[in-house]
């Protein structure tokens, strides 16, 4: 048997060698021989080898394809952009402007009090006055009428009457340092701009020119920001020099220097307000810590004479709008007349005010409700409600807030020990009459941690 096996192996090797030689010879002399037909065994071997190679290549390609399809790329996590400012449920708006433009008078009519010291001379107001003003919301009024609770707590806007700023306030002129520090503590700014002529009300600059006045305020706020940013940059550089190169905290300190340098360039060289920049989340965190004046939203309140307000015409309005579009596009402009608002307040009742407005012409309304609501809208603030027989209450939050954070506005334990929420909308209860009707319609839903609370939601939170 060993001899036979050896002979067979030798014969196979010899045959293969001969076959290979024949194929090579045939290929080399293809021009001479028109046709060559290998033996059936040789053809079978060639065909089997070709099929094997094709099968292996197909299997490998299929395996690669299968591997790719089975392991798709990871989804990129959506990073929500942080917004400037950190407004709380107690929103604060500062009333800012030059002296004798109507700031304290506006404060008095908004607050329906006589705290603001109106006078025909600069710096009648030195220490800021504060007043909490309910924000008009017909949804809240409807809920209170529906539940008839023992207590009603609407959304409030805290208005702060800040003394008049003048040219040079950023360097301390006219008690400027103290006044600008008061501006720093608010969430947003109502900038009052005088566009009425009155010989009995002096103007600190000598004549009425709203464009010049707006330039003064804008310049002083930026100059003060530059002063604060430069001081912050010096401190940040000192911290970076003392940092090592090991920990994440060391790296963060060095990154902060670059961020503050970018912020300084934006205000000092580009001559732009902070709120008009395009900032990353890390940059917004630094800006929020600096509490810069030009990072705060501004709503321009143009104080007109009663006559101009009623006829809806004033020679300065178009120029003021053009200045805002050129310098701070997107900022809101609201015309109002403090003289008219004072006269309406003196009438003593909403009914008397409505009757007086009707005598002035069609579609003439006061502007106070619009002004207080604009304070919320300027900061992307909305409200959800808690409602029951004991209390109906409005809670202020920023758009896009998730359920645990929204619950935390009521109490931090609600956020830390959040379990779930039960939610339905104000529109649902209006449509179906009461909570039982909402449940029967399938609109009463249980939500988890990822739910983003909507404006007008009515929420009940469950926590551990």
Automatic annotation (TrEMBL):
Domain OBG-type G stretches: 91-356
Alphabetical keyword list: ATP-binding, Cytoplasm, Hydrolase, Nucleotide-binding
Coiled-coil ranges from the UniProt annotation: none
GO MF annotation terms: ATP binding; ATP hydrolysis activity; GTP binding; ribosomal large subunit binding
Complex formation: Monomer.
Role description: Hydrolyzes ATP, and can also hydrolyze GTP with lower efficiency. Has lower affinity for GTP.
Similarity-based family: Belongs to the TRAFAC class OBG-HflX-like GTPase superfamily. OBG GTPase family. YchF/OLA1 subfamily.
One Pfam family cited in the UniProt record for this chain: MMR_HSR1
Domain of life where this protein originates: Eukaryota
Cellular component GO terms held in the UniProt record: cytoplasm
NCBIfam families from the UniProt entry: redox-regulated ATPase YchF (TIGR00092)
Primary subcellular site in the record, as a coarse category: cytoplasm
Positions of ATP binding: 100-105, 304
Record has Membrane as a keyword: no
Name of this protein: Obg-like ATPase 1
Location(s), subcellular: Cytoplasm
């Amino acid at each position: 048997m060993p001899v036979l096996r050896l002979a067979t192996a030798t014969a196979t090797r010899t045959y293969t060698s001969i076959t290979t030689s024949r194929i090579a010879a045939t290929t080399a002399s293809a021009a001479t021989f028109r046709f060559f037909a290998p033996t059936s065994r040789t053809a079978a071997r060639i065909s089997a080898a070709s099929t094997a190679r094709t099968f292996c290549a197909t299997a490998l390609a299929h395996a690669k394809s299968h591997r790719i399809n089975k392991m798709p790329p990871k989804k990129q996590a959506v990073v929500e952009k942080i917004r400037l400012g950190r407004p709380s449920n107690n929103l604060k708006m500062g009333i800012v402007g030059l002296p004798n433009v109507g700031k304290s008078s506006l404060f008095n009519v908004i607050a329906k009090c006589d705290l603001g010291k109106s006078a025909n001379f600069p710096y009648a107001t030195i220490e800021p006055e504060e007043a909490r003003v309910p924000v008009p919301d017909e949804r809240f009024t409807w809920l209170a009428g529906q539940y008839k609770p023992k207590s009603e707590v609407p959304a409030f806007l805290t208005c702060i009457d800040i003394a008049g700023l003048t040219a040079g306030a950023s360097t301390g002129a006219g008690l400027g340092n103290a006044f600008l520090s008061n501006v720093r503590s608010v969430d947003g700014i109502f900038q009052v701009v005088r566009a009425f002529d009155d010989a009995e009300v002096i103007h600190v600059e000598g004549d009425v020119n709203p464009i010049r006045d707006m330039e003064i305020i804008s310049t002083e706020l930026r100059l003060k920001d530059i002063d604060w940013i430069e001081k912050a940059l010096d401190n940040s550089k000192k911290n970076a020099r003392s940092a090592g190169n090991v920990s994440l905290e060391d790296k963060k300190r060095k990154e902060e220097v670059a961020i503050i340098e970018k912020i300084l360039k934006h205000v000092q060289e580009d001559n732009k307000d902070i709120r008009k920049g395009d900032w990353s989340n890390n940059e917004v965190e630094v800006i929020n810590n600096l509490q810069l004046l030009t990072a705060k939203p501004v709503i321009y309140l143009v104080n007109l004479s009663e006559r101009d307000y009623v006829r809806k015409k004033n020679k300065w309005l178009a120029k003021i709008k053009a200045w805002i579009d050129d310098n701070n596009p997107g900022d809101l402009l609201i015309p109002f007349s403090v003289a008219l608002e004072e006269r309406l307040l003196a009438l003593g009742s909403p009914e008397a005010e409505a009757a007086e407005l009707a005598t002035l012409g069609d579609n003439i309304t006061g502007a106070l409700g619009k002004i207080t609501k604009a304070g919320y809208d300027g900061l992307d603030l909305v409200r959800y409600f808690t409602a029951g027989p004991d209390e109906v209450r409005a809670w202020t939050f920023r758009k896009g807030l998730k359920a645990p954070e929204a619950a935390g506005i009521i109490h931090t334990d609600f956020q830390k020990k959040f379990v779930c929420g039960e939610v339905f909308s104000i529109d649902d209860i209006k449509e179906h009459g009461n909570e039982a009707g909402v449940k029967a319609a399938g609109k009463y839903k249980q939500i988890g941690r990822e739910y983003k609370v909507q404006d007008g939601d009515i929420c009940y939170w469950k926590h551990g």
